[in-house]
Each structure stands twice: as C-alpha cells, then as structure tokens.
Amino acid sequence: MVVPVYDSAVSLTKIADVIDAIAGEFVLFTIVIQNDSTRTLNQALLSDVLAEYYQFISGSVVVQGVRQPYTTPYAITIGVLEPGERIVISYRALITYVPDRIMTSTQASLSYQVSSDPSIISSNIVHIELFPSAVQLSKESNVSTVIVGSRVTYYINAVHFGVFSGQLLLIDKLPSEVEFISGSLVVNGELRRDETPETGIKWDPFMVGQLVRVSFDVTVKARPLTGKLVNEVDALFTVQLPSGRKAVSTYDAQAEQIVVAEPLVVRKSASTSAISLGEEVGYTIAITNVMAYALNELFVVDLLPSSLQLVLGSVAINGWPDPNVNDLTSGIQLGTIEAGATITIAFRARLTQYEPNMLITNQAAVHYWVEYNRGSVLSNIVTIVANPDPPKPPPPVDPKLRLYVASPSITEPVFVGSVINFQYILENISEDDLFQLLLKFTMNQNGAFVIGSLYVNGISLNDNPFDGFIIPQLKIGERIEVRFQIRIVGAGDGSRLVVGASADYNYRGINGAVISEQVVAIPTIYRLYDASVDVVKFTSAKVVMVGDIIQYDISIQNTGNIPLNLTATDKLASNLKLIPNKLTVNGVIVNDRELSDGITILDAEPGVAHRIRFTAVVTYASGRAISNAAFVVATAIVDNVVREFSYHSNTIEIKLVEDEE
After folding, report:
1. Per-residue pLDDT averaged across 193-205, rounded?
2. pLDDT tens, 370-388?
3. Torsion of CA 615, 618, 622, 627, to 10 degrees
4. Are strands 564-570 and 584-585 parallel, antiparallel or unpaired?
5. What gap in Å lies between CA 626 and CA 643, rounded to an integer?
6. Are 30 and 90 in contact (CB under 8 A)?
7. Which DSSP letter does residue 224 get?
8. CA atoms within 13 A on the CB side of 174
9. Residue 645: phi, psi to the nearest 5?
10. What angle do CA 172, 95, 539 make, to 5 degrees?
11. Is the pLDDT of residue 77 over 70?
12. In the chain, what is the greatest distance between 2 CA atoms, to the nearest angstrom?
C-alpha cells in the first residue's frame, strides 16, 4: 500500500480561474508540477478527480502548451521528471446542474518513483462556490402544419428559478426559410418595434421567480429540404456573483418542428420515352390542390430545353384548346384552383436539335398566391431519350481522303476541369494531289479549345481548329498529324463531350475540272462527370464583443451530376470557443471534434443541399475583426477511380468591438 507523503523538493499546485461560478459556466483548472530536487522522478502519474457538478470537457487537456485530444485529467502520464523541470497542465470543466448554493473542493495528486521507492503527494485544495442559475426556457408555435406564404406565431417563455437577479438576453436565429414580420414582437404585453428576435431581446432586471413571455410572427418564405421547420432560441443570463465577477450561463429550447406542406401536387408525364429528330412528344401536367381552401393567381411555367420547340396551338387546359398560349416560359395563367380540385394542362413539343446519346430532361413550376405571399411547387423531372438523326447518305465509293482520330485513348473518367489531348490524322489515300483543304472541327458546349495548343506536323499554329483552317496542299500518299487540347468546362447536354471533324478538299478530274468533296470523321464521345460543389457560409452577426455568441451556418450543395462524399472543416479563429453539443448536420447533433477534424457527409446526391450549424462564443479580443471560412473536400468515385476536389466558402468577417463597460 502506498501512503501519501509530502516531499518538500517536489511541489504540486492547483489553481482555478474563478472562486465562484454558476451552472452553465466553464472553469479552467491549471496544475503546476515543479521538481526542485536533485533526483529524477520516474513513472510520474498525475490524477485529478472532478467534484460533483463538474463535467470534464473532452479534448481540453493541454500539457506544456500542447493539446492532448484523447487525455483526461483522471490519469495523465508524465513519465520522467528531471531535476529542475517544471510541467504545466490545464483543462476545462463545465458546471452542470447545481441544485443549491454549495462550496466544492478539489485536489490533485501525483504519484512517482525515486529509485524503487514509490511516493504520492497531494496539491493544495481548490475551493469554488457554486450557485444555481435555473432559467427554464421553452418555445412553441401556434401551428403544426403550414405552407409557403403562411404566417406563424412563436411563443417563448423564460422562468427564473435561480438565486440572483440579472440580465436576460434571448436570441432566436430564425431559419433561412422564414422572415420576421417587423412590428410583431411583444414582450410581457409590451410591443417592441425597434427589436428583432435575431438581434436579441433584453429583459433587465430578470428577477427571481419572474416569467418573461415573448411572442412574434414570421412568414414562411420557402420549404426546407427536409420539409420541416426547425427553430430554437438561445438565452444568455448574466448575473453578478458575490466575488464581483459577472457570470454568463446559456440555455436553449427548440420548438416542435413545423411541417411545411406542399399545397399542390404537380405531376408531369410524357407520351413517349424516346423521340427522333422532327418527331413530337406530348406532355401532360396535372395540378391538384390538396389544401382545405382555394389558392389564387396560379400560373404554370415550363422551360423547355433548347432542343424542343412548342407546337403552336397544341396547348389545352382541362381538355379545352387555348390557342392564345404560344410561350410556356412566360407562364400559363390559371386563376383560382378550389380545394381538392385538379387542373390538367396538355401540350406537344417537337425535337429540332440532336446530339448523340442526348437525354432530354424537363420540369414544370406552378406558382400561387396565399395570405399576401407567393409560393411555388415544382413537378417531378421527366426524361426522354433522343434517337439518332435519320441515316445520312453513304460516303463516296472511292474516298480520296481519310480523316480519323488517333488519340485520345482515355481509360479513366473525365471530370469537369480536365484537359484532353486530341490527335487527328489526315491522309491522302488517292492517286491525285489534293489542294485547298478546309479542315474544321466541331464540339458541343461542354468543351473549350485551349488557345495555343494547335500543332500541325509539330508546327504551332495560331488558328482555332473549331473555326477551320486551310491546308494548301496534300500530295499523293502524304499524311498530316493535327494535335490540340480541349478543356472540359461543363457537363450539360446529357453529360457528354462530342467532338467531330470534317475536311472539304479539291482535286482535278480527268478533263482538268476542279472537283470538290468532303469527308467526315466518326464523332468522338466521352461521358463527363461533374464534381462541382457550392459552399456558402453565413451568419446574421455583424458586430460582436467578448462574451457574445455567434451562430454560423454552412450550406453545402452538390451542383454536379454524380454522388459525392463530402468532408467539411472549419478552423475557428483563436478567440472563438465552440459551444459544446451545438454542432448539427442537417439538424442532427454530431461530435464537436468533427468541426476541425472533418465532418463527413456520404453519398451527397446532386442538387441536394446540406446544412451545418454551430455556435461559438467570443473569448477574448484579438484585432478588430473575426474572419472565418469553411473548407470542403469532395471525393468522387467513378469506376473505382477516386478523385478529390477542394472548395472554399466565402469568408465571413465580423467586426469586434470592446465592451463599453
């Protein structure tokens, strides 16, 4: 059994940054180990067991200025402590629920060996007086289901069950899909026209036993991706402790999620799954009002792709032709749709353009007016396949010129941003000299010629091969090599790169007459992959001071055409401290450590946005502004080939001012 002893040559000192605190505050403990002896201490182990009401903050242990993310104060291995060596250790703890005023005591211990003799020493006892700071916070709304354009009333109740009066600050960071209605804020029956829930609602003094009741109205401006409005309120309660220090505790409450329903069901269908050049396809849009009341000023917009052209006079509404509708992009006015009613729109479109392997996608949008606000609902996406052009006339029986692509021979997937090297061969296989050859290349909008990359037989030309260039002469048996580069700039038109080539040439017939002919190369087609991501970071905070809480939101949307694995990081400024258990991904709480280590979102589908939200407190003044940006790595996996793409968000800069007090 090891008996604790006092060693005058080895000191162990424990310090706390406060002498009193309230529930919800953080306490910083610092422990100093000093070996003033001439002996080397071996197998040194520090142990500091927290008292009741304290909760260790994971990842907060710092030894000699180096953070130890996986260490706890209950057992910190020091190892060898040389003569004269000094070790400084610190960590943070959260004060949890405190039922009543209470004095707490904590003490650290250090065990070690000198030669083979074990020893234990104890630190001084640290006393901290704790006080309850009981603010009961709740939030509710007057509805459980709404539609875009509806008005919602939120109610916030704060009840003081603590022992000190102080100042209450309520902050409600409304979701981006709603908008606060100015002039609707009421606090304990008092109308406050110059305040908003987002900038903060103050109540001072907040007396023991007092109830503060807040109500305000918002308008639903958009439907969240999840179909539900998630809204919470934060409370900051500031009191002055017996020591004279101001203490701040935080609370939060979330209202029941409100379902944002689509008032209309919009279904679109096509009469065929495939269409050829010059043929027509019939589209039908069925709009049903699923609400218990009428919706007004309906109009339908259908943006047909450029390859389709509306057949004039083909529009019919509920089976009745409407010859006045000749443009679907400007909208079809429908007026009012009664509760439970269905309106059907039918029209035809003709395929006027064709690209190989082209997919034609189409979607309708229905706009409506309700409660002084406009909303809209999208239909499902309809996709049909475009068949090839009608057969072309066969090439000349005895072609004199051969044009073909020699490269690329690409085996890996092609992504937007890639550069592809092309090599074409132009070969005179006739018994005639050819002259005035016009060589011209074509490609769809997904590619762009790399300026300066055109070489003919190794000689650089300033021409653009897609504008065409002249080769004066090609003698019998002569062969020309043409090389250039294309950069992939997009993935539209069915996510394909289509490159073609043609050569017009002349030769003299038997009687000396000039004969003109053309040869066309087989088109080169590549499947394109787009790993584009939009990263937007935002906050409503503009100006803050030490002690203020900032809520950040990061919106990450896959704007490409393939699923991606996303890893998002956000390196907070040194004077920002992440508030524990506030980091959410799409409304779900995740481990706080993931914000700096990387938040992973697997299989992020194209067109789907993901929301990361967290809050941080300003711990000290450093400079005049707090700058911050997010970083996202998108990983694409195609045919077992892995590619990574990096994206940065916009930089958020918040002005930092000094506390006037």
Report:
1. 92
2. 666 677 888 888 888 887 6
3. 20
4. unpaired
5. 33
6. yes
7. -
8. 21
9. -130, 135
10. 25
11. yes
12. 121
* Burial (0-12, 13-18, 19+ Cβ within 10 Å), 306: exposed
Measured CA to CA, the distance from residue 118 to residue 478 in angstroms comes to: 94
- Please name which of 1, 557, 658, 523 lies closest in space to residue 225, comparing C-alpha atoms: 557
- The predicted structure's pLDDT at residue 4: 37
**What is the Cβ-side half-sphere exposure of residue 566, based on CA atoms within 13 angstroms?**
32
Q: 361 is written with which tokens?
A: 């996608």
Strand, coil or helix: what is 49?
A: coil
The residues, any chain, with a CB within 8 Å of residue 660's CB and separated by 6 or more, are: none
**What token pair was written down for 23?**
């529930």
258-260 and 186-187 strand pairing: unpaired
Listing DSSP states for 160-215 in one string gives E-SSS-EEEEEE----TTEEE-TT--EETTEE-SS--TTT-EEEEEE-TT-EEEEE
Q: How far apart are CA 469 and CA 449, in angstroms?
A: 14
Distance CA 250, CA 169 (A): 10
Cα angle 536-540-545, degrees, rounded to a multiple of 5: 120
Residue 566 has which token pair? 């996303």
Write down the H helix ranges in 514-648. Answer: 594-597
Residue in the structure block whose two tokens are 């309106």: 343
- What was the pLDDT predicted at 204? 92
Q: Is the pLDDT of residue 235 over 60?
A: yes
237 burial (CB, 10 Å; 0-12 / 13-18 / 19+) is buried
**8 Å CB contact between 320 and 385:** no
Provide the phi-psi class of 227: left if phi over 0, else alpha when psi is between -120 and 50, else beta: left
Identity of residue 138: S
Asked if 90 contacts 76 with a C-beta cutoff of 8 angstroms, the reply is: no
pTM over 0.85? The answer is no
What does the block give as tokens for 171? 């902050």
**pLDDT tens string 39-57:** 888 999 999 989 888 999 9
The Cα 85–Cα 110 span in angstroms is 15
Q: Which domains does the chain have, with CATH numbers?
A: 10-131 (2.60.40.1530), 135-260 (2.60.40.740), 264-386 (2.60.40.740), 401-529 (2.60.40.740), 533-656 (2.60.40.740)
622: nearest Cα among 570, 550, 574: 574
Q: Which of 184, 185, 183, 178 is nearest to 147 (CA)?
A: 178
- Grouping H, G, I as helix, E, B as strand and the rest as coil, residue 623 is coil
pLDDT tens sequence across 464-511 = 999 999 999 999 999 999 999 999 988 876 788 888 899 898 888 877
According to DSSP, the β-strands at 258-260 and 228-229 are antiparallel
Q: What is the pLDDT confidence band of residue 407, given thresholds at 50, 70 and 90?
A: low
- Cα 458 to Cα 365, 405, 441, 468: the distances in Å are 53, 16, 18, 18
